[in-house]
Amino acid sequence: MILVVSAEAFEVREPNVFSALEVRSALAIGPLAEAASALGLGIIDPDQLHVWIEPEVLRLDGDAERIRAIDGMLAYAAGRGWVDDAGRVRAHLAVRAA
Questions:
Q1: pLDDT digits (tens, 9 = 90+) for 14-72
Q2: Which parts of 29-93 fold into alpha helices (H)?
Q3: How far apart are CA 21 and CA 60, in angstroms?
Q4: Which residues, including other chains, have CB under 8 Å from residue 84's CB and lie 6 or more apart?
Q5: How many domains does the chain have?
Q6: What is the C-alpha separation between 80 and 35, in angstroms, rounded?
Q7: Is the pTM here over 0.70, yes or no?
Q8: Cα separations (Å) of 11 from 15, 39, 80, 82?
Q9: Do the Cβ atoms of 52 and 43 come closer than 8 Å?
Q10: Residue 4: beta bridge partners?
């Protein structure tokens, strides 16, 4: 699953790929952090290589089958230590032209 983030919105690409989670943006880190917060997407990790995503964002517009698959992905991530204390899941960050 890929979340493409602009200053005003984000879109989900490859919504049925549950084996990877990535955030892509053409924004620099500062504006991306502001957009992620304003959009309710999550927060940029201090390492600037990851974004901590709010799980509700991944479930938006999902039918019951897709939500079950997302919950499975989140459970797998939790087992790997990729979920923080607030319940956000870690996504890879690619700051480049989306």
A1: 999 999 999 999 999 999 999 999 999 999 999 999 999 999 999 988 889 999 999 99
A2: 29-38, 55-59, 64-79
A3: 15
A4: 52, 90
A5: 1
A6: 27
A7: yes
A8: 10, 11, 26, 22
A9: yes
A10: 11, 24
